[in-house]
Amino acid sequence: MVVEQPERTRALMPKLMAFMADHVYPSEALYAEQLARARWQVPAVMEDLKQKARAAGLWNLFLADDESGAGLTNLEYAPLAEVMGRSAIAPEVFNCSAPDVGNMEVLFHFGSPEQKRQWLTPLLDGRIRSAFCMTEPDVASSDATNVRTRIVRDGDHYVINGRKWWITNAGHPRCDILIVMGKTNPDAPRHQQQSQILVPRGTSGVKLVRTLPLFGFDDAPHGHGEFVFENVRVPASNLIAGEGRGFEIAQSRLGPGRIHHCMRLIGSAERALEAMVVRARSRVAFGKPLAEQGALRELIARSRIEIEQARLLVLKTAYLMDQVGSKAARAEIAMIKVAVPMMAQAVLDRAMQVHGAGGFTDDFGLSYAWAWARALRMADGPDAVHLEAVAKLELKKNG
Amino acid sequence: MVVEQPERTRALMPKLMAFMADHVYPSEALYAEQLARARWQVPAVMEDLKQKARAAGLWNLFLADDESGAGLTNLEYAPLAEVMGRSAIAPEVFNCSAPDVGNMEVLFHFGSPEQKRQWLTPLLDGRIRSAFCMTEPDVASSDATNVRTRIVRDGDHYVINGRKWWITNAGHPRCDILIVMGKTNPDAPRHQQQSQILVPRGTSGVKLVRTLPLFGFDDAPHGHGEFVFENVRVPASNLIAGEGRGFEIAQSRLGPGRIHHCMRLIGSAERALEAMVVRARSRVAFGKPLAEQGALRELIARSRIEIEQARLLVLKTAYLMDQVGSKAARAEIAMIKVAVPMMAQAVLDRAMQVHGAGGFTDDFGLSYAWAWARALRMADGPDAVHLEAVAKLELKKNG
Amino acid sequence: MVVEQPERTRALMPKLMAFMADHVYPSEALYAEQLARARWQVPAVMEDLKQKARAAGLWNLFLADDESGAGLTNLEYAPLAEVMGRSAIAPEVFNCSAPDVGNMEVLFHFGSPEQKRQWLTPLLDGRIRSAFCMTEPDVASSDATNVRTRIVRDGDHYVINGRKWWITNAGHPRCDILIVMGKTNPDAPRHQQQSQILVPRGTSGVKLVRTLPLFGFDDAPHGHGEFVFENVRVPASNLIAGEGRGFEIAQSRLGPGRIHHCMRLIGSAERALEAMVVRARSRVAFGKPLAEQGALRELIARSRIEIEQARLLVLKTAYLMDQVGSKAARAEIAMIKVAVPMMAQAVLDRAMQVHGAGGFTDDFGLSYAWAWARALRMADGPDAVHLEAVAKLELKKNG
Amino acid sequence: MVVEQPERTRALMPKLMAFMADHVYPSEALYAEQLARARWQVPAVMEDLKQKARAAGLWNLFLADDESGAGLTNLEYAPLAEVMGRSAIAPEVFNCSAPDVGNMEVLFHFGSPEQKRQWLTPLLDGRIRSAFCMTEPDVASSDATNVRTRIVRDGDHYVINGRKWWITNAGHPRCDILIVMGKTNPDAPRHQQQSQILVPRGTSGVKLVRTLPLFGFDDAPHGHGEFVFENVRVPASNLIAGEGRGFEIAQSRLGPGRIHHCMRLIGSAERALEAMVVRARSRVAFGKPLAEQGALRELIARSRIEIEQARLLVLKTAYLMDQVGSKAARAEIAMIKVAVPMMAQAVLDRAMQVHGAGGFTDDFGLSYAWAWARALRMADGPDAVHLEAVAKLELKKNG
């Protein structure tokens, strides 16, 4: 075990940290202001930041391909993603935000040349955004075989009917393409019934029923939406990879998706701990600085201990994914998916409390970060599902 | 110890529960709809419900005065307040919502006849609403002696300067009167420096700087605001009770205010548990109803155990307040202020998780109820302050 | 709800508290010393204390019969049992210790006149002690239908074969009588297969295989034993109540048995909190008394809050048992069986920590009290079984 | 970060694991039996195992010296120590048990040639055992400057007076040498007042007042003792390193001592989890194997997650100690000292519960392992002290 960051990480890290300090943190307030004026428009500062990030060579770091991306392994990317996770606006700045990252990876690995040309290129350029339509309101979507949306072949087209919700980017003005999961072959074996298909946002029959708040946050300008697909007709060539490969494609994105969330949550928790420390040093109550109150000091120490442990488990998982692949690392992926959001939630909760009533407002970004950590105990599978996966593997050992 | 509800509670309870079932729960969706159309207007359904409640004799139940209110003790009121706490819109329906309840009590006990005529009567009638301006952004307001707002005598008037935040009702279109806490005599003994004064909302110099979200919720139509008071001039007769009595008045409202919040949180948690049970029975995942999954069953059981214990402590506290007063019951008030929000938060968190992604939206009311429970670990004093109060008393025992 | 103690409790309480202060607490060290000299003999001080307690009218308070006992209800007895629970040696002093209390109640309610004469009378006199042989090492005994011990009729006798463990009092020199649970009718309906039978300790074939330590504690002089019954032959008249009534008899003792344990644990936790406070006031570390360290103060406050809530739930349960019986109060009994040991364990853990390394020795009685609280998360049914019982009832509500 | 074990660890590991499987686990019961027959004698099986271990080249692996020990770094030793931690008897088998390890390291680094010859050589040979006398009953010994024992020069001798407790190995028949910490120069600067001195066990004036149980465990044959030193006179040459260096020597052993405990606790928790899994698969309750009960499955999963995180933090700490030394790694050492015992305690508690009443006996070794984990939340400094150390460092960051 070597704790030092890999060489390529160390090469990029100072640049990334400087960019965060010089450009990202100072722009957070402006971003919020611009957004307050035009709720579902992209704040101009975001476009500006994206150009600067690209110019600085901090672009598409997530993509493990040398040509289209930075060619980093998970282990190399992890500390960088953590730093991006420190600001709610940062991942998009570096074109590393969910669900676009997952969609780009799917197109990169499974897309046809034409699909790549049409959708992957503008996504890699940061010109458009995308959504992944998997979760459905009427079934427990943590079990992917439950999906009810139908994708039916009709001559040279497929016709899609179904209802999806919690579709991130649904409200974004440049969210031009949706990847929709549905069943093409309900009679096939359990994991070969599903397919994924590309649906341009403007296709007739694609209806955004409503946007869904997360706690009270609308998450503008991207937001989370509920879509109805009513007889949505797209060319057959929009199908990704082939009929019956939907489950396989979904699996391929889930491991990386989950660890990316966890990497960023480490950064979110780390920044919250720093904020807690700053506040504790500066705030006086009942005659002495909060920093001198023993109970709070213990919470600071516990937060540090929890963050350290969670980070190490994320790094180990990244390393295993690099070495043996997501499937062989599925126990570890499940473990971090449980451990990291819970840790982040706990640290953020303490940070909010130290910030008094202000902790619940938008003033410190803590309440939003908390809500997001909380959501990640559900998104990509609830805790219960991942705990069950870990338990099942454990009960098989030494059998 | 007798567990049965007091006689007067039992007389009112069936009426209240029927009213909730017939009128309040069925109106929640409509209230949200009307509010969505006009964010800072009072939804028509609320006025309608208030009239019905008053007609049904379910009005001002909080007020321990036989004539102006229902004349109930805390112990008698507690189970009724719990039922009101089951719906976010209910307390206002019955004219029992914070901070108006506290303001009415202050006016009832400390107001001059003229102050009562002008402000208490319309408040008791539910015609206007009110705010209590105590917390300040720049100081740890859990220590009331920190208050910086100045109230300075100038001939027949007082002139007020200061900044206040987390002022509930700030956005309400009928919030006509503010009770403002400030210092009249900074050189007096520590607890005689403060006074409270009535400031009509429209007085020149009263400026609403912004409304403050709670985990993204704007809490319309009442909201929470940040006010600046710039040379606000009101007649000297607006002072409540007399110079230097501000701390005393504040103390008098805090005990009842805290226990009312706790009573309602019990109801909030109880409804969440019921929702959890309903969901567990109806939702299927991985081939069996959630209700058959052992880990979830344990959470249901733990929630029941935690609610029962918290409710009993609230009832004991209510009883003590009735028998020996808020001051003698201050340990118990501090205890419930810590125990009940934490319990409610835990139960609501589990209820959200069982509801999947929907738990974080407005669909089930759970995320808002959670945010409110979370806020109450800070409002009226953070946990740390109440734990300290309990510890101090404990450490004095058997000395 | 009335918090005051019932009249008969208030009449006895000062006497009991004075007895504890004058006789019990001051004898704890002597009891330990005498025991250290003769591990499995009854320390002389115990017999002395018993005589004093009986003379003081503090004897058999548990028995709800006016003639043989004090005639107290559960609600009246609860606060007294709590006080007895403050000292590990106190329950026996007042002839109120488990499992004798349960055995006496069984004999009182189900015993024949001859059985009462022979065994109940000396037990009520405190002349002998008794054991209850139910748990078996080879099956999950929390499910009483699993019992494997056989009780077979043979002419005028019954012949018993089986293995039992965790038989409290097994090592006591005056433990003269065992009540053994086994199956007389394995083909009867599920809850009519079992019977209970009286087996004098000295009967041929009764073999104490070993005594079982509890976290290293031998619990002398009573101890916990593993028995083998090999062709143990007793007169048929030793059967209690009749064949097939074993399950019914067991059920009748479980409710009271569980609540008695909980009552005493409240006292155990309460004494630990007091010890924590005393220690915190007197011990200095890093230049200031522990009592001034914020984190510890919070633990003191949390302990107080947890004890208060647990006590109230025990009192409510006692009240319900008195009013509607153990069966109708089974949810509450299950709740306290989970909540109280967990609370006591937590409070005792904190108390130990405050006492430094001494907390783990016999010097303060804390480690033994902790071990006992821990054991009670298993004895009379593990937490999981009681949580399941609560969940099942909850899931049936509003069905 | 590389997860793989270092080369030298991989070379030794199969040998160590085979030795555990072939010799150690199968001897645990015999060891207990021999001990039961002669409580304070060394069980013959231990001497036999030690010879075998030495013959197998599994001896003194802890010592980072190539000649006297195995020359392993902390990172190399950690996984091996973890495996030793799986059995309560294993560390001594490999001559790697506390406090001898620490004493050997002190003598190795600070001892004179004569001190080494006389005491280090027989310790490295496993012929004798040793004790470290630091903790005192009357002061908070977590603050080493509190020590009250006096070591006074008198001609060619030192005279020692004081009281020490929790002296591990106090009862061991071959515990021939004590290292005693005391003050030689009470007027020197705070950290130069203390010295350490070698006191042969049989010196006149060394009095074992009592052995101290840990919960109810006597921890024979080594035990924990309370010593009084009354005018104990030893040659001046017995002083280690020089007057005033006691604090420095203590510091040098604390880091390694703490991480060794943590390494072993990981193994203890790992074995408990395995036992839990085995039990869950084999035990049936209410008609189905425990392994199919969801709540238990979650506990298995959570245990796995907690162990993984704790182990990684221990490994990182070991690595840092190797690279930058104990002082620079003091935050990490403090972190594992808090995190690992707490984790082990939680895992062991669950394992006990799954084992029913048997979990509290000696049958599965779980209750003893738990007690030991609990003790380690106090030994070498209570949690509070380590949390404070972490907090202090955190609050200094970004200052």
Please give a quick description of this structure.
Four copies of one chain form a homotetramer. The first copy, chain A, is of the alpha+beta class.
Written description of the protein model:
Four copies of one chain form a homotetramer. The two termini of chain A are 29 Å apart. By secondary structure, chain A is α+β, with helices and mostly antiparallel strands. In chain A, helix 1 packs antiparallel against helix 2. Chain A folds into three domains: 7-111, Acyl-CoA dehydrogenase/oxidase, N-terminal domain (Butyryl-Coa Dehydrogenase, subunit A, domain 1, Orthogonal Bundle), CATH 1.10.540.10; 129-240, Butyryl-CoA Dehydrogenase, subunit A, domain 2, CATH 2.40.110.10; 248-396, Butyryl-CoA Dehydrogenase, subunit A, domain 3 (Up-down Bundle), CATH 1.20.140.10. Chain A has helices at residues 7-37, 44-55, 74-84, 90-93, 100-110, 113-124, 246-282, 294-328, 330-354, 366-375, 383-396, and strands at 129-133, 150-154, 157-168, 175-183, 194-200, 206-211, 224-235, 284-285, 288-289. Chain A is globular and about 75 Å long. In chain A, 51% of the residues lie in helices and 15% in strands.
